[in-house]
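Students often ask why we bother encoding 3D structure as a string. The short answer is that it lets us treat folding as translation between two languages. Here is a chain of 81 residues written in the first language.
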Amino acid sequence: MDLETKRLELKEVTWDDLEDIHNLHSFPEVDKYNTLGLPKNIDETKEVIRPIIDDRKAENRKLFFWKVLLKETNEFIGIGA
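And here it is in the second language, the structure alphabet:
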């Protein structure tokens, strides 16, 4: 399920977004507001998002996770769940 506003697109996260998510979680400024802490490596980030991506196949989904993009530039600016 994707969502959009006049300025933003919220698209469900896929494995193609792993690097962007890892880079986002690696910023100390983001870590202040993230209960997961800074990831040690990209494999740690992969294991954090694995259950969310796997849940997309479930009949009764419980998890939703979006990347946030600026429509005008298609730039990745964050995530939401």
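Translate back mentally: The CA atoms of residues 39 and 71 lie 28 Å apart. Keep this in mind for the problem set.
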